[in-house]
Amino acid sequence: MDIRYLNHFLKVVQLGSMSEAARQLGLSPAAIAQQMRALEKELGMSLLVRQGRSVRPTAAGQRLAERGPALVQDADALRDWVATDEDAGELRLGTVNTALHGFLPDILQAFSDQYPNVRISLRIGITPALYSALVQSELDAALCLKLSFDLPKTVCWTPLRQEPLVVLAPARDAARDPLELLRSAPLLRYDRQLAGGQLAQRYLQAQGIRPRERLELNSIMALALLVERGLGVSLVPDIGQGLAGPGLCKLAVPALAGESGGQAPPPRELGLLWRNPSQRGRWLNTLLQCAQQVVRAA
User: Which comes out higher in pLDDT, residue 94 or 298?
Assistant: First the structure.
């Protein structure tokens, strides 16, 4: 089976039109029709039926449409697997947004220096979505937060860095007490649907602080920008070099009452998640080594 024909069949089913599929694929309608006939001949059954100017899949065509994406993906993976012997191909990497503004660019640079012919496909998302994509073989690895449940044996996790809570405040408030700032200044809250926002909320509750909320955002970088403009303060995980600016300061939060040794609240933990075994094992090992070197040098 020509995998290109299968891919084009999926496009026809998606659009419900051979002519529109041909237009998007840069082919003639006659060429698409010929490919569909060749596919039907090879499988020995009708896959499409016409309804006026549109087409729809037959029962057999619907079954092919359901399995087809996985077949196309497997073919792509096989092609990349063959190419890995030549250190060329594609590495599909997921990442949380905050890592893009922190140490991920340095990791990618170090990896690319060793594998200049490997193309890196980045997907940005929240940790649960990245994990789902990983187990469904849509990603090879993900730079994400530590998950709260036990991982299956086919998924590996290596912690890379911890991100403790800090109070972001305008530079003029660098000498002020962070708890007093959280009590008195308008709070630019980190989204409570995210792990970092939940961590911040638990800390505020444990300290008995009922903040004066001004807004709630799901971007730490945007919050830092607003703090620097003087709109308030924020309580967020410290993502590192991304939180630097002449008008901004970071204040460590005090330990919670009753914690032994004066330790700060549990930090957010960031690490690398990948499938094992993996067709891209050598690349992933190198990626992990690059990440560990970058974190140690920070």
Answer: 94
Q: Considering the entire predicted model, what is its pTM?
A: 0.66
Q: Which CATH class is domain 3-82?
A: mainly alpha
Sign of the torsion angle spanned by Cα atoms 184, 190, 195, 196: negative
Residue 155 has pLDDT above 80, yes or no: yes
Count Cβ atoms below 10 Å from residue 276 Cβ, excluding itself.
10
85-160+272-297 topology per CATH: D-Maltodextrin-Binding Protein; domain 2 (3.40.190)
Q: Does domain 165-252 have CATH number 3.40.50.300?
A: no
pLDDT category at 148 given cuts 50, 70, 90 is: confident
Eight-class DSSP state of 173 = G
Domain boundaries, the chain: 3-82, 85-160+272-297, 165-252
Separation of alpha carbons 58 and 51, rounded Å: 12
Locus of tokens 């709260």: 148
Separation between Cα atoms, residue 153 and residue 56, nearest integer Å: 41
What count of residues does the chain have? 298
CB of 186 closer than 8 Å to CB of 212: yes
